[in-house]
Amino acid sequence: MLTRLIKGDGMRKSRLHNYNGQFLDLSGFLYLPRSIRTTLLFKLANRRPELPWLGFRAINHLRELVKPNWSVLEFGSGMSTVWFARRCGLLVSVETDRSWYDSVRTILTQKSFHNVDYRLREQSEHEAVSDYQDSTFDLVLVDGYERDRVMKTAISKVKRGGYIYLDNSDVPYREHRTAKALLMEAAGAESEIRIFNDLYPMQFGVNEGILARVFNKAADRAFH
Question: Which range marks the domain in which residue 137 is found?
Fold first, then answer.
């Protein structure tokens, strides 16, 4: 139990290290009380804050970045769906779990959002937005399953000069590593790349996320 408390899933040194072995920096510790509080509320009372399940500093950055006229695509829904819907002009959200889809759909209906295209795709998540033209979205969030395939879709659907956020980019699985390599190649030499090594809400632990501005949109073809 003590080992689980300290190391979480056991694949890293501690909950304050990401999967690459990087320890949380001093500024990141400012979010420690919020991470613990939201984790306890989630575990004990199933209460979820209206926040994306991303690092706290990544959330702060996206709050400043996303504009009311933006089109946003997210793979993997949740409180992030509500959060983005309040801030952008169009949100397309793709979910693979039917029961979770029904729960989030209920929340969206209760809040009367009219700018959300919410889609259930239990298979072939990466093909869920084939009816949207390429270079449509200002921001794409890559989470959920099949991140390598989803990243190829993200690169094709994001505008040149638009942004892609890859969550859990430090996870040492093939699909995560491939997705990260795709994103770095697509970003190109001109890109603005920000790496967030952060504590998360509702999950006491440090994870890495990458936000990159995409200029080399042809790069995904090299991985087909």
Answer: 2-223
